[in-house]
Amino acid sequence: MLSPSIRFYWHTLFALLALPRITSAQNDPSSCTDLANLHLENTTILSSTYISGTANVTTPGSCQSQALVSNSLCRVQFIINTTSTSTVHAEAWLPDTWYGRYLGLGNGGLNGCIDYTNLDYGTSLHFATIASDGGHDGNTGLPFLNNPEVISDFSFRALHASTLIGKQLVEEFYGRPHDTAYYLGCSTGGRQGMQAALKFPEDFDGIVAGAPAVNTNFLEGWAAMLGKLVGAPDPTGTPGFIPPELWDSVAEEVLRQCDALDGVEDGIITEPDECVFRPEALICEDGDEGGCLTKEQVEVVRSVYQPMYGGSGMGELLSPRFDPGAEADGGAQRWLSGSFDPLIVDWYRFAILNDSTYDFENFSMDTVMLGASINPGDIETFSGNLSAFKARGGKFLTYHGRRDQLIPSGSSKCTYDLISRTLALSRSSMDTFYRLFLVPGMNHCIGGPGSMLFGQMGAVSNALNNSDSNVLLAMVKWVEGDVGPDVVRGIGFGSAGEVIMRSHCRYPMRSMWDEGKREFECVV
Question: What is the C-alpha to C-alpha distance for residues 215 and 210, in angstroms, rounded to an integer?
């Protein structure tokens, strides 16, 4: 629980920002129910229901059965026919009191799940908020099998289509168009935000995209090759297989070797790229009673922390390495358990190979390169050409945890550098429209021992009501006030429950410990 002194107070959330025009639709349920009669292109409105006050509502699809609504609003459920063989289910939540801001949301993993948590979060901040199922229902990739249009929806089209319809619903309900449009997503949602900036630069004025799953074909291939390295699809009898309890020993040794590199031992590796981990320190010797590694296991561990190279000469960097320190999170077992994660299985079976019986026994770099060459639905999302988005004044804020157990944080560095090279922009020029914040000690999107709460996803992530400590508010201030965030100030908790605040630096600045001030500072 957050201490009372820093608990988030909704009614003062925007006190530090200059508010745009406020539109009120309070106590007028008929304006909501009338939306059911609206005719929009290729769209069927299933229902439009006014919800008064806090309530739990039933939800369609297989992902969940109920969702929380914290504030009075108009809930619109609709279907968009994107092609003759593909449809998108979406919802628009339109709050009674609206500040003229539109907010689009993304998805996660391969799932086709409407993001009800952030629908509630967005409307609690007075955004008209819209989310979709990404063009399919459920947590698996089975709908992709022999359905290229469904993959295209998931890749980019569902977000764009729901944004076009969502903006029309907003204008109809409030009697005027939105003033500014924002986007919020992480992981797959981060990738979708990047796709929006690349393919549809007019859709959003400001995009907040966390831990983007970009360079997707090689990201999926890297995760699969990592699984194979540690014994997948069946680690039985594999000399180098490392069971979960030994990964705990590896995690302890990684911290022992690399925790103090940033100047302070606090259980957090600020810059994993500086950690040159020597797994030989764990090799078993006579008299050891556990917690040590065989020579074969040492070589596997060493390989885990290597980047993935490939291409025609096998010298092209395809994916950055697994971040030292990320193995400490149990979620890392998705890649390191000795079996292929269901996300990887589904992607290759249903999107790449169209073979539901593929058993992965012969999975190799050839399979990875095949997936990249197919690039289903143009899923790759690895282009530095954000020129159109920049030219129209768009702002892009991205963040990535340095303890991300699923997507290497180096991926976001590579993306930043790719954009800088492609557009021939200096750091100061990049700062005018694109800012990356690296978050030491944060896991995938949220969680971990670091100061990892900064308003990035759901009410649980909100701790302070200012634009330094909330990335969505920071984006509002950047778009509407032309003041970009210098730092993102996160909140975390120590072992005794004490609040720990830390300023996270924008790349390529580095976070360095100042012994005199007893705090981290951002330095060039």
Answer: 14
